[in-house]
Each structure stands twice: as structure tokens, then as C-alpha cells.
């Protein structure tokens, strides 16, 4: 047991952190005494000049002057060198003590003055106090006391016995002083090391993500700021999981947490050299990649990361899948501070999710203007009076079979005092990205309900929902609450969704849309045919209406293929008991080709441009007056 304890003590004494702590503790003890000691030995040199001559003056002056100079240089060294090793400190400390010892020894060897024997006692006490390590004390103190004993052997018996007592007393006193001082210093060192250890653990906890164990947002941005300060080039990638929220909603947060940990494990298995992977929130991750990495290589690495984490997971006998997209920026070619680089990577990520889902997109210089505009729009969304500035226009949906307008689509518009009339595509994209879309939707929906209440009961309103809207069941319930408050029949409301709005989280979207239909509202799939998997949604989503994308309608007069596609979709909708809207019908030529296909509903400039609520009300009133003359109605609405 004792041997193990001694071995453990030996291990601790050789610990680099403990040795450095010893250095840090002894430097403040040694440094203050060096300048006074230097002054003392300069005084000794002056004294030699007063009492010595010839060879003795030269020898004694050399020794004392060298001692004074060494003390001064040692003081400079301790002042300027804050990273001195314990071995080096020990060497200089022992040299300082030996210089003091040699000054006294050389003098007594020439002038054996008994009254100066007591100086050995003083040196022993000084060495006991200033010894940086036990080794230095065990060398210098016994050497000093042995020399005192040696000199005392030439004295008469009574004086010899007295000096032997002095040697023994000094030895015990020196050991006691050394023990007390080192005990106090070691306790201070232990307390400091413990504090440093606790601080390091606290820092590690503060910089680590509690769920996955990888660096968190704070650690990532500290790394970025450090690299920028050092001028080290690096790539910053922001990765986002697609469909993760649906897994959380369907299977619970416990399953979602396990999926996150599994995706992180896969990313870490790739062993990207020079890469730091961190979680910056929710299902969003960041990768900081240093080193001389080319753009093609970055795309390759990002692609491999996406491929790895999007492969199916088997958790609790349940196969789960998520998608992933990424946006990347570069320092210093794209940005010069952490905020700018993050915004650029985040902008590229949003671009990937909106247009190139499942891919990695690099921020480009051509994106700067678009990003600048997006920033200006976001600022106005935050600071503007959206209640006053947002408004709706209404575009008719005409039924050839009934020869009248049966519905209007609500189209969002924004007139800002500083930006002017902002394009709907522009401000809706920014609102979705910045998290303001639900505020925008709530304001516009409230205004749409106010107009709908003014119309006859046989006129309905079609309202668009974004991806963020339909991914939040609580928000959708708030819209249903507004319908009940306004006492509007839910059957008069139709919610339009797009393929891109549902593709990231089909399960959640389907659940929310089912909730809307169960309350009596209808659901329409907008821009049908513009995506690669729209037919799949006819089977998986609870739909009441399909709107054929205008890209087909424009080609109908000149393309047999487009005409046959439109005819097939109309027939399919009829068999599935879905209403079908042809979007973008603008000319009589297009209508002449489409009429034989017996379209259900038409929406386009031919039957009405987007109009104000007042004009929509007038169109409805004119329609009621001209209900017996469809031709007149058509001319008025066109």
C-alpha cells in the first residue's frame, strides 16, 4: 500500500501541469529577493575594494560581481519568461544558491574569521526558504551545514560542541521551514489545479451539445472567430435535416433524439481531416473545414456527408429516413466576419432547400445582391407596420359549366414605404426563411376572411399556405379558430399548398391537411405537374382540388403532347372526384383548344386579373345581375 502511494506521488510530481503550477508558485517568491540580493553583493564588492588589494581584490571582486550580475539576470529572466520549465527554474535557483555559498566559502578559506561562521546558518535558512524543489534544498542546505561543521572542527572543544548544536538546530529549523512552506504552496497548487480542472470541465460542458456531445453553437462560433483572427482560410457549411420534425411528431422526441445521435455518429465516422462538426440548434449542424481544400473537394465532402446521413436508419425495429441539404461559404474569399459567413452559408442553405433539395450549394458572388435585398426585406418585416402594409388581391376562378365565377384566389401583396411594392415571391421566401411567414399568413388570412364575409354564400376563397404554416399544427388550429370567430362556413374556404411545401415533411403535412378537411375546409394542390413526384401526392395527400401548372397551358395551342397531358389530368381528376383548375389561361386561342377538354374551372387573365376586394365585390354583383347572360358576364370579367 505504501509503495503504491509512493508511486502515485511520483506520478503526480512528474505531471506537466503540476510542475508548471510549481513554477508559477515559486517565481513570485524568488523574484522579489533577487534585486536586494544583487544590491547586497554590489555592496560586498565595494567592501572588497576598501579592504583588499592585489590578487585577493581581483578574486573576491570577480566572485561578488559575478554573483550580483547573475542575480540581476535571473530577475530579468523570471520577469520576461512566463513559460519556464521546472527543471530550468531548479537549475537557476541552485546556481544562485551556489554563488552565495562560494562567496562565503572563498572568503573564509582565505580569512578564517570565526565570527563569520554564523553566515552559514543564515545561508541555510535562505536556501530552505528559496529552494524551488526538494532537490535544491537537499543539496544546498546540507552542503552549507556540512561546511559549517568542517570549519568548526578546528575550534576548541567547547566552541566545537556549541557549533555542532547550532548545525543540528539549523538543520531541524531548515527542514521545518521547508516543510511548512512547501506544504502551503502544494495546497495552493492543489486548489488551483482543482479549480482549473473544474473550469475545464465547465467549459467543456458549456461548449458541448448536451444531446449529441459534439461542439455546440457557442463552440463553433468561437472556432470561427479564432480562425478569422489568425487569418486561417476555412469553409463553413450549414447542414439541415429535411423531414426530422415529422419524425418527432409521429414517433416522439425520444426517437428523434436517437435519430440525431445516429446521424452525428455517421458524420463522425467519415473522419474529415481538419473538420469540426457541431450542432447549432434543432436539426441544424455546422462544419468548419480548415486546410487547403479546393471547391470541388468541398462539394465532394459535403455530398458524402449528405449521402451518409440520409441513408435509412433502423431504430427500435423502425426504419426511419431523413433528407439533408447544405449551404457553404468560405473565408476569406466570401466573407470576413463570422456573422457574414454564417448568413451567407444560411442563405445558400435556404436556396438549396427551396430549389435544390438534397444538394450542397455554395454561396456565390452573384448571390450578394439577392442576399442584400433579402436583408432589406427582412429588416422591413421586423420593423414595418405589416398590419397596414400587407393587403390582398383576388383572382377569379371561372366555371365554364356554370358560366360564372365560383371562387377567388387570395394573392398576397406588400406595399412598403421604403421598398415600394415588393414582389410576393421575394418577401414570402424571406418571411419563410426568417420565421415571419406565420405572422404574414395570420394578417392576410384575417383580411381574406373579412372580404369573404361580404360575398354571397356560394362564392368561396382559396388561400395559400407555406411549408412552415402546414408544418405547425398549432398555427393551423389558430386559423381554424379565426374561421369560427368570424362565423364563416369552413366549406367556403380552400387552402392551397404546393409540392415543395409538403415534400420536406409529408407525414406532418398529411396530418395537418386531414385536420383541415375534418373541420370542413377544402385542400388544393397548386402547380400540379411542375414537380417530379406530384402524382404520388394525389395518393398520399387528402385533396379536393388540383391546379394544373400554367407551364402546360401555355404550350397547349402549339403542343399536342401538352394538350394530351392536360386532357389526361382532367380525366384523372374526374375519376378521383377531384376538382381541376387550369391556371394561366390568358387568350381566346388557348381557350378554344381547352374548351373541348371540358375543363372544370379556369383561372387566368382571360376571365379576370388579380383585383381588389372592392372590384371583386363589384364583379360578383355584376355577375348576379347578368346571371341570365353568360356572354355578358364573360365580357365584363375579361
From TrEMBL:
Protein name: Diguanylate cyclase (GGDEF)-like protein
Pfam families cross-referenced by the UniProt entry: EAL (PF00563), GGDEF (PF00990)
The keyword Transmembrane belongs to this UniProt entry's keyword annotation: yes
Ranges for domain GGDEF: 232-365
UniProt keyword Transmembrane, yes or no: yes
Top-rank lineage group of the source organism: Bacteria
CDD domains with a match to the protein in the record: EAL, GGDEF
Membrane-spanning ranges: 25-43, 55-74, 94-111, 118-151, 163-181
Residues in EAL domain copies: 374-624
NCBIfam families attached to this UniProt entry: GGDEF
Keyword entries, A-Z: Membrane, Transmembrane, Transmembrane helix
InterPro entries hit by this protein: Cyclic-di-GMP_PDE-like (IPR050706), EAL_dom (IPR001633), EAL_sf (IPR035919), GGDEF_dom (IPR000160), Nucleotide_cyclase (IPR029787), Rev_trsase/Diguanyl_cyclase (IPR043128)
SMART domains from the UniProt entry: EAL (SM00052), GGDEF (SM00267)
Amino acid at each position: 500500500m505504501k509503495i503504491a502511494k509512493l508511486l502515485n506521488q511520483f506520478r503526480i510530481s512528474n505531471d506537466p501541469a503540476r510542475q508548471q503550477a510549481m513554477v508559477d508558485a515559486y517565481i513570485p517568491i524568488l523574484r522579489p529577493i533577487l534585486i536586494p540580493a544583487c544590491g547586497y553583493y554590489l555592496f560586498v564588492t565595494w567592501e572588497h575594494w576598501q579592504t583588499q588589494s592585489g590578487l585577493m581584490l581581483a578574486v573576491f571582486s570577480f566572485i561578488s560581481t559575478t554573483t550580483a550580475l547573475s542575480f540581476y539576470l535571473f530577475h530579468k529572466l523570471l520577469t520576461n519568461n512566463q513559460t519556464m520549465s521546472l527543471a530550468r527554474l531548479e537549475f537557476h535557483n541552485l546556481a544562485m544558491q551556489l554563488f552565495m555559498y562560494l562567496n562565503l566559502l572563498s572568503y573564509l578559506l582565505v580569512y578564517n574569521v570565526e565570527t563569520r561562521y554564523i553566515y552559514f546558518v543564515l545561508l541555510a535558512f535562505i536556501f530552505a526558504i528559496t529552494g524551488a524543489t526538494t532537490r535544491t534544498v537537499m543539496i544546498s542546505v546540507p552542503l552549507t551545514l556540512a561546511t559549517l561543521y568542517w570549519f568548526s572542527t578546528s575550534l576548541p572543544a567547547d566552541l566545537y560542541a556549541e557549533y555542532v548544536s547550532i548545525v543540528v538546530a539549523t538543520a531541524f529549523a531548515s527542514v521545518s521551514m521547508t516543510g511548512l512552506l512547501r506544504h502551503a504552496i502544494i495546497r495552493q497548487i492543489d486548489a488551483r489545479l482543482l479549480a482549473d480542472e473544474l473550469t475545464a470541465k465547465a467549459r467543456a460542458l458549456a461548449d458541448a451539445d448536451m444531446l449529441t456531445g459534439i461542439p455546440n453553437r457557442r463552440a463553433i462560433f468561437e472556432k470561427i472567430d479564432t480562425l478569422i483572427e489568425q487569418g486561417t482560410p476555412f469553409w463553413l457549411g450549414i447542414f439541415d435535416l429535411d423531414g426530422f420534425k415529422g419524425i418527432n411528431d409521429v414517433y416522439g422526441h425520444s426517437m428523434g433524439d436517437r435519430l440525431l445521435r445516429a446521424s452525428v455518429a455517421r458524420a463522425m465516422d467519415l473522419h474529415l481531416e481538419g473538420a469540426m462538426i457541431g450542432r447549432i440548434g434543432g436539426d441544424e449542424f455546422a462544419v468548419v473545414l480548415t486546410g487547403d481544400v479546393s471547391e470541388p473537394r468541398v462539394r465532394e465532402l459535403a455530398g458524402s456527408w449528405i449521402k451518409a446521413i440520409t441513408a435509412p436508419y433502423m431504430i427500435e425495429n423502425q426504419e426511419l429516413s431523413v433528407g439533408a441539404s447544405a449551404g457553404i461559404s468560405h473565408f476569406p474569399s466570401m466573407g470576413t466576419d463570422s456573422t457574414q459567413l454564417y448568413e451567407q452559408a444560411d442563405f445558400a442553405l435556404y436556396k438549396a432547400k427551396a430549389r435544390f433539395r438534397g444538394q450542397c450549394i455554395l454561396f456565390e458572388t452573384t448571390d450578394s445582391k439577392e442576399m442584400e435585398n433579402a436583408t432589406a426585406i427582412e429588416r422591413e418585416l421586423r420593423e414595418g407596420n405589416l398590419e397596414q402594409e400587407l393587403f390582398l388581391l383576388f383572382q377569379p376562378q371561372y366555371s365554364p359549366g356554370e358560366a360564372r365565377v365560383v371562387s377567388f384566389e387570395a394573392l398576397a401583396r406588400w406595399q412598403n414605404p421604403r421598398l415600394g411594392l415588393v414582389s410576393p415571391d421575394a418577401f414570402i421566401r424571406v418571411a419563410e426563411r426568417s420565421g415571419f411567414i406565420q405572422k404574414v399568413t395570420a394578417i392576410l388570412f384575417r383580411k381574406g376572411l373579412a372580404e369573404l364575409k361580404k360575398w354571397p354564400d356560394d362564392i368561396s376563397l382559396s388561400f395559400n399556405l407555406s411549408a412552415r404554416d402546414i408544418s405547425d399544427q398549432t398555427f393551423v388550429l389558430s386559423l381554424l379558430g379565426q374561421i369560427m370567430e368570424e362565423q364563416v362556413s369552413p366549406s367556403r374556404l380552400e387552402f392551397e399548398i404546393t409540392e415543395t411545401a409538403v415534400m420536406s415533411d409529408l407525414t406532418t403535412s398529411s396530418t395537418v391537411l386531414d385536420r383541415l378537411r375534418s373541420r370542413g375546409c377544402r385542400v388544393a394542390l397548386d402547380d400540379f405537374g411542375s414537380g417530379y413526384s406530384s402524382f404520388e401526392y394525389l395518393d398520399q395527400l387528402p385533396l379536393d382540388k388540383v391546379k394544373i401548372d400554367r407551364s402546360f397551358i401555355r404550350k397547349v395551342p402549339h403542343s399536342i403532347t401538352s394538350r394530351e397531358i392536360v386532357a389526361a389530368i382532367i380525366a384523372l381528376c374526374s375519376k378521383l372526384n377531384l376538382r381541376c383548375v387550369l391556371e394561366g389561361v390568358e387568350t381566346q386561342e388557348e381557350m378554344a383548344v381547352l374548351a373541348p377538354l371540358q375543363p372544370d374551372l379556369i383561372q387566368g387573365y382571360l376571365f379576370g386579373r388579380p383585383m381588389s376586394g372592392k372590384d371583386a365585390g363589384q364583379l360578383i354583383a355584376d355577375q348576379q345581375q347578368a346571371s341570365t347572360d353568360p356572354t355578358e358576364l364573360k365580357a365584363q370579367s375579361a
